[in-house]
Automatic annotation (TrEMBL):
This is Polysaccharide pyruvyl transferase. The lineage of its organism: Archaea, Methanobacteriati, Methanobacteriota, Methanomada group, Methanobacteria. InterPro entries: Polysacch_pyruvyl_Trfase. The keyword Transferase applies. GO terms for molecular function: transferase activity. Keywords: Transferase. PANTHER family: COLANIC ACID BIOSYNTHESIS PROTEIN WCAK (PTHR36836:SF1). It comes from the Archaea. The keyword Nucleus does not apply. Residues 31-348 form the Polysaccharide pyruvyl transferase domain. Pfam families: PS_pyruv_trans.
Length: 426
């Protein structure tokens, strides 16, 4: 990486000096986890390369990204088109270091297009001889084609830091030969702003007996597929369309009915309020349908990343009496407050995390378990009646995960020293 490389501001044309860092990820999707990760990674980079380091964040959703990221002379937002190959090549050429910052990096659970974007950025950096680091990322389910692509292209990465040991093992099994290291997710070191203290109480002052959070995911939407055309209601951003079929719609309807029944049981049996949590914008329609299907609507609210930023959502999560989650980052961001939790999982991320926390299999349920809703209701009752049941396990897990997360910055700093020039060096 070059030190004090003279270049030009992408908008004003004014000259500046300093290393240039490109952050390639799922930026601007109103996703609380991605937002928390991005802000933490920006802090990590500035702590290592100084406050004048030039950082560029590419995005398909510029308007959303500007909700929580303030552009200035050192931080740049770069809109890119849906067909991203040439845009990524150009951005890589303009920068000195490429970081892959999306947690769900090496998996095609959501869509192959995201995976290909990250692999293309790696390929472009390798071709242009720019250092490339995958920063605290995960690995999960992959098709045969994508396993082959990951083996070929991810091996060109200069360093891959995985956020679990399980992810590192998956990449090794695939045959990735890049240097590998495992730590924990960046979001473990993310903290809400002081102004957002007691945020849940501020937005829901009527609560008197505590809140149980249900962080839901519409599994039926995924994966997003690439098509030249399709139904308008299924369009995410051309040419990407949500998956739809009669079977998928039946799955969604079962989710709505199951979650609605669980929410009503929590309210009636435990006298708690229920927050239906949308950790990503795409979770909100499912949460709203669940609310419509409930009997006790007055004791329930939808709390969504469409309305609130990562600081506010994290503060809200920390005030819950119990979290039931299908979202990885709601589990991560609530851990600092030692909120008891149960997972309803649908991909390897929560499975790996619960294994690390030693909550698997006792507090982990798969979304297609035949007795899902009965078992979930039982576990909810157990934890609400025994509020300290998980306390020691969560405390131990928190200490371990925070310590591992703090190593991300250290490992990146060592990489920069070995592969370039840190500020203050000749």
């Amino acid at each position: 990486m070059q030190k004090n490389t003279a270049t030009h501001d992408f908008k004003s044309g004014e000259k500046f000096t300093g290393p240039r860092v490109l952050l390639v990820g799922y930026n601007g999707a109103n996703n609380t986890g991605s937002e928390a990760r991005l802000l933490t990674i920006i802090d990590d980079i500035r702590s290592l390369l100084g406050p004048h380091v030039q950082i560029t964040v590419p995005t398909l959703n510029e308007e959303n990204l500007r909700r929580y990221l303030d552009e200035d002379e050192y931080l740049h937002i770069a809109p890119i088109p849906s067909i991203f190959f040439f845009a990524i090549d150009k951005l890589v050429k303009e920068h000195d270091l490429v970081l892959l910052v999306e947690g769900s990096c090496y998996m095609d659970t959501w869509t192959s297009a995201l995976l290909w974007a990250f692999l293309w950025a790696t390929r472009s950096a390798h071709k242009q001889k720019k250092p490339c680091v995958a920063y605290a990322v995960d690995a999960g389910e992959l098709s045969s084609l994508n396993r082959w692509l990951v083996k070929r292209e991810a091996s060109k990465t200069d360093l891959i830091i995985t956020r679990t040991m399980h992810a590192q093992k998956r990449l090794e099994e695939i045959g990735v030969t890049a240097p590998l290291n495992s730590t924990a997710d960046c979001a473990f070191t993310f903290s809400p702003e002081p102004k957002d203290h007691d945020f849940l109480t501020k937005i829901w002052p009527e609560v008197s007996n505590g809140v149980v959070g249900l962080a839901v995911v519409d599994f039926s939407l995924w994966p997003v597929v690439i098509r030249p055309w399709g139904r308008k209601e299924n369009l995410y951003k051309w040419p990407y369309y949500f998956s739809r079929s009669r079977e998928r719609m039946n799955t969604r309807e079962k989710l709505v009915k199951g979650w609605a029944r669980i929410a009503d049981q929590i309210i009636k049996e435990h006298s708690k309020e229920v927050a239906l949590i949308g950790m990503e914008a795409l979770d909100q329609p499912l949460a709203q349908d669940i609310l419509r299907g409930m009997e006790n609507k007055d004791s329930c609210r939808v709390i969504s990343s469409n309305e609130y930023n990562a600081s506010q959502m994290t503060s809200m999560l920390s005030q819950l009496d119990l979290l039931v989650t299908s979202r990885y980052h709601s589990a991560v961001l609530s851990l600092r407050a030692l909120v008891p939790q149960i997972a309803v999982g649908h991909d390897p991320r929560l499975t790996s995390f619960y294994q690390d926390l030693h909550l698997f299999p006792d507090y982990f349920l798969h979304h297609d378990d035949p007795n899902l809703w009965e078992d979930l209701n039982q576990k909810i009752g157990l934890l609400l009646d025994n509020t300290d049941l998980q306390k020691d396990t969560l405390e131990e897990g928190l200490t371990q995960q925070v310590n591992l997360s703090q190593k991300n910055r250290i490992i990146l700093g060592e990489f920069l020293k070995e592969n370039g020039t840190m500020p203050g060096e000749d």
